[in-house]
Write a structure and sequence with these properties.
alpha+beta; Thiol Ester Dehydrase, Chain A; 2 domains; about 25% helix
Length: about 300
């Protein structure tokens, strides 16, 4: 359900300023011993008339491995809208700490293609605050429309976990069953990810989260090395599925283990076709090519 109270922003927020503000908010709450309460803000943030920069689109397509096109890749739309979603989690009345939030899942429904010439209205809000065995989780919903149109062209739901944060009044679920044993199949692709992968994605997405940029900045936030952006990995897998997915599709990804940089990541894509030979669905899974540990998995399906 979309929150009824809109907050209209004049322009897309600056991610760097949001990260600085999040750090200041976390420090203030630690010193004062305060928090923002136990409920999510009943508001949505909106920006209208957003346009993609063609140079960013071109650089993104090159980095991810998408074919050059005036169509915005589904992962690029996520990156374009991400600052607005971040601004929702950066509110003073948002109950969980933004820094250190773990991205668990992402679910996207793209109903029609969007092009870089389109002006876009973007709205975002948070919902479904709930317990997790390791802390508290929630969903951040983002919808994208062409300016002046009612139909939603792109809708994303990102699930985040605030690890180790337990809010009063929110039940902690029972322990989850052990995950099924993973046996790596024969890969269809092998990615060589350099230590600069996080910085390269940050340059095209604007997401300069310190855990992705360098060993030193990642260690400052408790990571042993920098890690690849989850949406970089998922978007690259989507690009490997290719043009067969068409213009309207659903796209899901679940993240299980971080990819510490540098890395060799193996990927397997299993495609299902209908009786007429048309593409229906692709399931993908990625793992550490050396240890065999699963990093993420997901699917792309025709609408």
């Amino acid at each position: 359900m979309t929150p009824a109270q809109p907050v209209i922003l004049g322009e897309m927020p600056s991610l760097s300023k949001l990260y600085v503000n999040a750090a200041a908010t976390a420090a203030r709450r630690r010193v004062l011993g305060t928090h923002a309460g136990n409920g999510l803000p009943a508001t949505r943030h909106e920006v209208r008339g957003v346009k993609a920069a063609v140079e960013n689109l071109t650089a993104y397509q090159h980095l991810i491995g998408e074919s050059a096109s005036d169509v915005l890749p589904a992962g690029f739309v996520h990156a374009l809208a991400f600052p607005l979603a971040m601004s929702v989690m950066n509110r003073d009345d948002f109950p969980l700490p933004l820094l250190g939030m773990i991205h668990l899942q992402n679910r996207v429904v793209q109903s029609e293609p969007l092009r870089f010439t389109d002006a876009l209205d973007i709205r975002s809000w948070s919902e479904d605050l709930r317990g997790h065995r390791a802390g508290t989780q929630l969903d951040v919903v983002t919808e994208v429309r062409r300016t002046g149109e009612d139909a939603v062209s792109w809708r994303g739901v990102s699930t985040y976990l605030a690890k180790g944060v337990y809010l009063p009044g929110i039940d902690k679920p029972s322990a989850a069953p052990a995950p099924a044993a993973f046996s790596a199949p024969d890969p269809t692709a092998l990615w060589q990810l350099g230590v600069d992968t996080g910085r390269a994605y940050a340059a095209v997405s604007g997401d300069f989260n310190p855990i992705h940029l360098s060993v030193l900045s990642a260690k400052a936030l408790g990571m042993r090395r920098s890690i690849a952006h989850g949406m970089y990995l998922a978007s690259r897998a989507l690009a490997d599925v290719g043009a067969a997915k068409g213009d309207a599709f659903s796209w899901d990804v679940s993240f299980e283990a971080p990819v510490f940089l540098p890395a060799r990541v193996a990927l397997d894509i299993n495609t299902t076709q209908g009786d007429d030979g048309a593409w229906q669905r692709s399931d993908y899974v990625a793992w550490n090519a050396r240890s065999g540990r699963k990093h993420f998995s997901g699917s792309v399906a025709a609408l």
